[in-house]
Design a protein that fits this description.
Elements (H helix, E strand, L loop, with lengths): L2 H4 L3 H22 L15 H34 L5 H8 L1 H18 L5 H35 L2 H4 L2 H29 L4 H18 L1 H16 L7 E4 L2 E8 L3 E6 L4 E5 H4 L4 E3 L6 E9 L5 H17 L9 E7 L4 E9 L4 H21 L19 H6 L1
Length: about 400
Amino acid sequence: MDLLTAQPSGADVARTDAGAVSHWITDWLVRSHLGSLTAPGPFDIMWWQWVALAAALAVSWWGGRLLGAITRGVLRRVSRRTSTAWDDRLFDSLGPPIGVAWTLALFAALGHSIGLPDAGERVIVQVVRAAWVATIFWGLWRSVNVFVEFTLSRPWAAESPSARHLLTIGSNLAKGAIAALGSLALLAAFGYPVTTLLAGLGIGGLALAFGAQKTVENLFGSMALAVDQPFRVGDFVKVEEFVGTVEDIGLRSTRFRTLDRTLISIPNGKLADQRLESFAVRDRMRLATTIGVEYGTTGAQMQQVLEGFERVLREHPKIWPDAIVVKFKEFGASSLDIEIMAWFAVPTWGDFQQCRQEVLLGFMQVVEQAGTAFAVPTRTVHLVGHAPAGEAGAA
């Protein structure tokens, strides 16, 4: 026989050594009148081996914590040499998964030395493999949190609500993908036919896509709103046929509180295609009105009124002086109409209402001082009498 083929492999030698240790412990238990511990238990594993596995797990747990702490200390020293802070946060976040990984490695080594039967060995190997998979995806899950927290701390993200909203949606999607892939990997670790499951999920996914079309549309609509940021929570806006205050922006829909205190909820997919008008982003608010004075007003009085109106506007502390319109517009049906247009540099609607009231009160004083009055809508009716019957016949 060839010497190369005659030599046993390292795994065979380890298995032989583990088997010899197992036989020695079994014989010792029998001689010590503890033969009940050599009886087979679940998965043909003897009861003393179950006790040994529990002890190995306890030793591995404490050893994993110790080795994990040493590993984190080394990684922290490495991260301190860098100028960035995200690696420090990442190593801190990955501390628990690193400790569990060391625990699994120690338990795999100690469990193999117990000399388990083939059936029990396969079960332990599957459990350890599944735990490895879960630990890896646990670390990925925690890494997503670190990435989101670090990104949100950047100035461009901290000053942009749309970026924060989009990062929240992206982190949820990433975690969902990690959870789905981790579940499939766990099933594969336990020996389940994942390819058949994926084929079934593909067919089911098509049916789900048709059924969840509106949900997906609303999800992408919320992402579009987060990127474009047409409004924020608390903004006073106009959406198509109603006006209201944005009360909540969710993943599926956005809710508005109207002036009548009713609550309107619109799906984000539909809202992203509608005409949105935000009053909160205005840098100034416009006063546009037409004031009519009576027809008995003279030309000199009209000139005095025009100059007085413009003076009231320009003297107001909140006026935007670059564009003020005070013009005699037209001869109306029952009044001489004056066109007024001006802008006030105020942030809220309440401030604008106060400015408008002050200006209109000033207009009243100007009209009174000019000796004229505001026009009142009137209608003159001319009655034409009918001629007597005799006169009509003579004519």
